[in-house]
Automatic annotation (TrEMBL):
Residues 18-265 form the Protein kinase domain. It comes from the Bacteria. Pfam families: Pkinase (PF00069). It comes from Planomonospora venezuelensis. The keyword Kinase applies. This is non-specific serine/threonine protein kinase.
């Protein structure tokens, strides 16, 4: 049993379904309890001070955003809500001391131990910022040193406190706060970079860089003085240079978390090749290049997973019908099979997904199955490939997006390491038949490719969207078609019309793209406009937009939210409207008559097969909602 203090008489024994076992700590923000959920295990429940009357709505919105943070070196947020008028946040329980306790108990960190701390905590910040969250109270006490490495906690709590308190109080811990926080300016991701650097200095020297004297003295040093980084024995080399850059008093000159993480990993950092901090909005993830974590599933071949950062970690995203530009939940790109696969009416077998509590419910007669998956709960986001003959899953390494061709012969990978290259982008192909593995050059820097998707049957190759760079608001500027057999890539430059991916079109040799005013544009592979279909809404379903054979395609309905529309490509008429609501997310076509979707539950979520009325006719996979939200499944024709 983890060390806890006994509950006080005023503490409840049960809070929102969690049985409180003891107090882990208390402070100015509230009380942290060790608790047991209904299903067993251990979680940490933080009960904050009572919300103001006008803070309840914003609190729920902020905590929902915090729950989108990918679990890279963080304590995953599991649940949140209000109990007796007091906000609470439930997170993964991480057993181990915090960094402040370690520094106080045994002194400063050195060498590889300090390097691991820097890398792990920066990985966490990249994930936090990628979800559109700013920590705003990063400090040694908010870094837990668990058995599997450092974990950052309390990310977003400062934002939650802001909206619940309804005040303009200064939030943070002064020795780790950035200059702009004291001058009333907006504290964005650069403030976290300043706090991270201060924390690393404290870990290396035993003291924060601007001291711990009375608050006015510390604030004056932060605003006007130079940081004390200690000697070269304590902090040296590239880490010292990075820390100094993060302590720049001008927030605009500090590196972003992705840039800093690339430097820690040993990569060059061209300024225009980095994904910026944060998300443009806190809405459900859009259907383009992915950013947030959830479950990615695609009908025809692969769901592309966009980078969390250039050269660092990769993260999937959930396809959200109707969302404008790209943004895990599910990932967003898939091909259109030329063949017309079929699915059995019922499941007859159960396959446990390795390392998880998820169950695949399959039938040997199914012509589409899970060909790969990626586990974003674990450090390095390990991927797994399925053997096309035995059906067994084997590890496929970390930090890369891997998509399998229909039939399973070719495997295409976009590895994080490719982003270190300052000259050109590339995709790696493995031919399972011959065992050959090789790189195919695609575009020259600063251009970057993303959203890989195989064409129907794999015959036409892999479609990649070309972006101006990896920044979140940069437009797509064309597409590339990779021929894995010929080992060539054909690049087609297009006008920059928004940050939207290209997907395989309904006819051979075509691609589709989002147009203005809810139009869909169909292009030839030479870039010529073949057709404009007006007023149908934004393309939905990732790359699996069209049915196998191309007769129907999907959009987010133009006449209202939370609905998917099915359109006849030839006539342009609407064939069906599926009122999916908030719980169901459609990912694309599974067969000519069925769609693939996620049905989210509070405790259990499912991957389901929908008919064209929106009715779930079969469950294809299920498991704990928290797990399915963090594991990416790729469905591919066998």
């Amino acid at each position: 049993m983890p060390p806890t203090a006994s509950l006080l008489p005023e503490d409840p024994e049960l809070l929102a379904g969690y049985r409180l076992l003891g107090r882990l700590g208390t402070g100015g923000q509230g009380v942290v309890y060790l608790a047991e959920p209904a299903g067993g295990g251990r979680v940490a429940v933080k009960v904050l001070h009572r919300a103001s009357a006008d803070g309840t709505g914003p609190f729920l919105a902020e905590t929902e955003l915090v729950r989108r943070v990918r679990p890279f070196c963080t304590a995953q947020v599991i649940d949140s809500g209000l109990a007796g008028g007091r906000p609470y946040i439930v997170s993964e329980y991480v057993e181990g001391p915090n960094l402040a306790q370690v520094i106080e108990g045994r002194g400063a960190l050195r060498g590889p131990e300090l390097g691991r701390l820097a890398l792990g905590t920066m990985t966490a910040l990249a994930a936090v910022h990628q979800a559109g969250v700013v920590h705003r109270d990063f400090k040694p006490a908010n870094v837990l040193l668990g058995r599997d490495g450092p974990r950052v906690i309390d990310f977003g709590i400062a934002q939650v406190l802001d909206v619940t308190a309804g005040t303009a109080d200064l939030v943070g811990t002064p020795p780790y706060m950035a200059p702009e926080q004291f001058s009333g300016e907006h504290a964005g991701p650069p403030a976290d970079m300043f706090a991270w650097a201060s924390t690393i200095v404290c870990a290396a020297t035993g003291r924060p860089p601007f001291g711990t004297e009375p608050m006015p003295v510390v604030i004056n040093r932060i605003l006007n003085g130079e940081p004390d980084l200690g000697g070269a024995v304590e902090l040296d080399g590239e880490l010292r240079e990075l820390v100094a850059a993060c302590l720049d008093k001008d927030p605009a000159r500090r590196p972003t978390a992705p840039q800093a993480l690339m430097r820690l990993l040993g990569g060059e950092v061209p300024a225009r090749e980095i994904l910026p901090e944060g998300s443009r909005r806190a809405a459900p993830p859009p259907a383009g290049r992915p950013r947030r974590v959830v479950t990615a599933v695609s009908a025809a071949g692969v769901l592309a997973v966009a980078g969390l950062l250039a050269g660092g970690l990769l993260a999937p995203r959930l396809l959200s019908s109707g969302d404008p530009a790209p943004s895990p939940s599910l990932s967003g790109s898939a091909p259109v099979p030329a063949v017309q696969p079929t699915m059995a009416a019922a499941s007859t077998t159960e396959t446990a997904l390795p390392g998880s509590d998820l169950t695949l419910r399959e039938n040997p007669a199914d012509e589409v199955w899970v060909s790969a998956f990626q586990d974003w709960r674990k450090h390095g986001a390990p991927g797994f490939l399925r053997d096309p003959r035995s059906g067994a899953f084997t590890a496929d390494g970390n930090l890369k997006t891997t998509v399998v061709s229909p039939g399973g012969r070719f495997v295409a990978s976009l590895a994080a390491s490719r982003l270190y290259a300052p000259d050109y982008d590339r995709i790696r192909i493995t031919d399972r038949a011959s065992g050959a593995a090789y790189d195919i050059r695609t575009v020259d820097r600063p251009l970057i490719t993303d959203n890989p998707s195989w064409s129907g049957g794999g015959a036409a190759g892999i479609l990649l969207t070309v972006y101006e760079d990896l920044e979140d608001d940069r437009p797509s500027v064309g597409f590339a078609v990779v021929d894995p057999a010929a080992r060539t890539a054909r690049i087609t430059r297009m006008p920059a019309t928004g940050h939207h991916p290209y997907v395989w079109g309904p006819e051979p040799g075509t691609v589709m793209h989002r147009g203005p005013g809810g139009a869909v544009l169909v292009y030839g592979l030479d870039g010529s406009l073949r057709r404009t279909i007006p007023g149908v809404g934004d393309l939905s379903g990732g790359g699996a937009v069209t049915t196998p054979g191309g007769g129907l395609f999907l959009t987010a309905c133009p006449d209202g939210p939370a609905a998917t529309c099915v359109w006849d490509y030839r006539s342009g008429t609407r064939r069906a409207r599926l009122p999916t609501g908030e719980r169901i997310t459609v990912h694309g076509w599974l067969s000519t008559e069925h769609l693939l979707a996620t049905r989210k539950g509070k405790k259990v979520s499912e991957i389901v097969m929908l008919d064209l009325t929106g009715r779930a006719v079969r469950v294809l996979a299920d498991g704990p909602a928290a797990e399915l939200d963090k594991i990416t499944l790729w469905y591919t024709p066998k």
